[in-house]
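pasting for ref. prot 1 ->
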Amino acid sequence: MYSIENVASVPGGEAFLLINETGTALIDTGFAFSAEAMVKNIENRLGGRALDAILLTHSHYDHASGAPYCRERWPELKVYAAAYAKKVFEKPGAIKTIDEMNENAALVFRQPDYRKSSAELSVDVPLSEGDKFSVGSMEFTVIETPGHTRDCLSFFCEKESLVIASETLGYPLLPDMVVPTYLVSYAQSLESVEKIRRLGAEKMLVSHMGLVGRDFIVEYLEKSEIWMKKTRDMIVDGYKRGLDEAGLQALLKEKFYQGEILTVQPEKAFDLNAYYTVKMLVRECAEQGN
């Protein structure tokens, strides 16, 4: 038996607490400004048990920034993340970007007074494809699912038919769409969707959403692939019509930065992602004819 629940204190900085009979883990850790409130939520839910591990699906600020605050409270915990994420956290330029994005998010959520700890981000257990590790009674296999970032990981527990999916699969706004989140590779994103589909999981923890069942998984993966291709076609068509990068970014913003996303993603973060998405799609698809 296991349970998974969101222990974040603000939308957009989701952190999911996994509890089973003999182990506990936090899956992603949210923003820096909301981390202390998140730690209190975890304490209340654990009722005296220790937090054993943190599983980071990737190194972005809205997924990793709360990790140092958790380590302060539970010094014995281990942080599991991609080997590439470990390198990211060792780069001063990456930490600077993480700080800047956290500062912007704090202003957007009107919580500017918080203690910075991005420089303390680190990985204890670097992971690669096929690695296995356990959280109490549950054994997980590491699945590399790049596309959103190079360091995106998903985790599959075969015993429970549960997959913890990375953000590469996209942000679900079903039944209408799944917003693509590819930043580093279109082709790798499609491959990642197919890798997750082949697992045939009965349960999935969807990034920024929560735990869903089989019917949702099937529709989600189908729409993810459809919208990845639709968005590629939109950008390639705009490129062929002579739009510059700013114009292509505007296409993405007009299409996707509306409704629910406005409440969970700061505009600066969307704009930065759109910048990288356009550059990638032009390079990988428009210029290469893919």
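and prot 2 ->
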Amino acid sequence: MVASPLVDGDQLITLVGGNENSLVVSFDKATGKERWRALQDTAVGYAPPVIFDFGGRRQLIMWHPEAISSLDPSSGELIWQIPSRVRAGAVNRDSSQI
């Protein structure tokens, strides 16, 4: 893993991968207990999770090798997704092609 985890309140959000719907996983930062998991991809990528406020709604933005995805940071629920395949295993695509 090269993407930094994200601490958001009492949770730690990080890229995990490996199993179905486990590209990104939220853990309780005090206990390590899993809170939620989301997204499926063939690779993890290198872009760290980030949170932005769009239209009054907090969104966890994940840029991974198959898409750019927005999740609800409290539940992992998918808000929107734009397919965007990269040409290599890293997330390093020319943004003008998105």
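The mean pLDDT is 85.
DSSP finds no helices and eight strands in the chain.
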